Amino acid sequence: MAKWQVSVRCENSVRNVQVEAESENTACNLAMDKVRYLSTERNQNKQISVHAIKRLN
Q1: Residue 16 scores a pLDDT above 80
Q2: DSSP strand E in the chain: where?
Q3: Going by fewer Cβ within 10 Å, which terminus of the chain is more open, N or C?
Q4: CA 23: distance to chain centroid?
Q5: Residues 6+ apart with CB under 8 A from 50
Q6: What percent of the chain has pLDDT over 90?
């Protein structure tokens, strides 16, 4: 399992999320889900996309 740092754009902000995943595609999906379902924000209906991804190890 690799560690990834994914920059996820959500409307006017970018969040850096670290996830562990087998592949780049899985890492992107996990990171977008993390941002989409943040309990402190209501991002379910917002436009979310991956801005950048970097493998950490």
Answers
A1: yes
A2: 2-10, 13-21, 48-55
A3: C
A4: 13
A5: 6, 7, 8, 9, 28, 31, 32
A6: 72
- SS3 of residue 1 by DSSP: coil
CA distance 33 to 8: 10
Handedness of CA 13, 14, 18, 21 (dihedral sign): positive
Q: pLDDT band at residue 38, thresholds of 50, 70 and 90? A: confident
Confidence of residue 15 (pLDDT cuts 50, 70, 90): very high
Domain ranges of the chain: 2-55
Structure token pair of residue 48: 């979310």
The CATH fold of domain 2-55: Ubiquitin-like (UB roll) (3.10.20)
Place of tokens 């379910």: 44
